[in-house]
Write a structure and sequence with these properties.
Shape: globular
Strand content: 35-45%
CATH topology: Jelly Rolls
CATH architecture: Sandwich
Distance between the termini: 32 Å
CATH superfamily: Jelly Rolls
Number of domains: 1
Number of strands: 10
CATH class: Mainly Beta
Order of helices and strands: EEEEEEEEEEH
Oligomer: single chain
Radius of gyration: 14 Å
Largest sheet: 6 strands, mixed
Length: 128
Amino acid sequence: MGFSVQKGTVRGMHFQDAPALEAKLVRCTRGAIFDVVLDLRPESPSYGRWYGAELSSENGRMLYVPEQCAHGYQTLEDCTEMYYMTSEFYTPSAVRGVRFDDPAFGIRWPLPAKVVSDQDRNWPLVER
């Protein structure tokens, strides 16, 4: 579960590495988010590309995040809540990430990033 007080909050881009690879199913249960999947599977034809969709309590949409893909979101309303189911338990030693604003991927967030955690600001940039 994630809860963000302020519109414009960005979380991500996170994934878990082997041996704790995880897939996610994401849903917004209060407010609205712009949810992003970034393909980090080296053998994939869509490697390095991202997809974003609006998930909200009103539209009821969910987004599937495959293993080896990073996930992040931006809140589009104040007091937004999202839930996700994962295929693997949270494993702190396996958690990895890439920067939400990494120019290598060019993710276009709909709003300026107002709140970003220190962890998410400090993921390394990817060299491509």
